[in-house]
Amino acid sequence: MAKTDPYAALRIKEFNIFLLVRFVLVFGWSMQFIVIEWQVYSLTKDPLSLGIIGLMEIIPAFTMALFAGHIVDQKEKRNLLATCIAAFSLISLGLFLLTWDEVVGDWTTKTILYSIYALVFFGGFLRSFFGPTIFSLVALIVPKKIYPNAATWNSSTWQMASVLGPAFGGFFISWIGVHWSLCIIFGLVLLSFFILLQIKRKPILNPKIGEPVIESLKEGVRFVFKTKAILGAMTLDMIAVLFGGAIALLPVFAQDILKVGSEGFGVLRAAPAVGAFLTMLVTAYIPISKNAGMKLIAAVFGFGVCIIVFGLSSVFWISLLALFFSGMTDGVSMVIRQTILQIKTPDHMRGRVSSVNSMFVGSSNELGAFESGVTAKLMGTVTAVVFGGTMTLITAVTTGLVSPSFRKLDLTKDLEEHEKED
């Protein structure tokens, strides 16, 4: 029944609590990011400053990723996630203070900007722990046979929060301003902390507690590079996200090209997540584990087409539809990639494998934001977005041609084996 029940994972109480934690946290995180993007561009009017936001986050996230994975595999997951959330609340509080005239009234624009970058840098450090901890915690809450279903609902929750967070961020900027929007975000982060405490502590499944760091990291990296399904999924998504990072330039499109203001900015920012969320709801009823490799390649190709259309459009509704369909293709990609990682990764290595994934895929979001900012500065905003979409198309076609084993990847047998184990 678990293979056909679209609500299998939702019948587990702690998984529902986990989803609530993730929703509140991602809602606040995505809302905070869009508010900071708006504030930084309003201060500088320079698209490169938006790229620097991504760079400030990727440097610590990338350099700390492997070490963070080692720590996650060595520690209890619930408490580690609680520690990360508590630290993140300090970042939200700091950003709130940086937009308070009574605190920064005498500060120069450059000082405020550098202070924002510093907090974003600290956030990147925390991010290196968030991904592996969440990935590992999910596997301790649900049985292996329903990993694909759990991945669908987990990703859907992330996307729903990503829909509402940016939309409310744009509206709140208009309604109550940047300062009080950040106050709301601080409250949401604290709420997620207290909800998380409703989940019980989990056992540590790593049999090599106290293993030397270098040996631990080597083992994690070796596993990823010898597991072709994981390596292929990570590489394909990394390059697509790296060159398809048009989202980072949305403040430029909203303010200077489409001229739709902060509310239009919020709607545009939410459009990809709406498309992805709707797609993920469909995958809960229609499993996509069969022919997963070919479906992932097709999804990345479709994503590239949508990015090109968005870059060329100067009409709001066309841009909105392009972003919506980019989200639909990205939703398919995300569910397939998460299912591959959950199924192919042993329990004792989830932290390290997730960390390598964050280096490939997660960090490429911020690196892609920096790439978009630099190319927009050099080529112009529209040309930069079209270039990124074209590179994404080339990546999808090349992967399909040079890697027949990945193109033929099918996860059905793996799921049947986990069914027998459970």
Automatic annotation (TrEMBL):
Its main location: membrane. It is found in: Cell membrane. InterPro entries: MFS_trans_sf, TM_effector. GO terms for cellular component: plasma membrane. The keyword Transit peptide does not apply. SUPFAM superfamilies: MFS general substrate transporter. The keyword Nucleotide-binding does not apply. It holds the Pfam family MFS_3. Signal peptide: none annotated. This is Predicted arabinose efflux permease, MFS family.
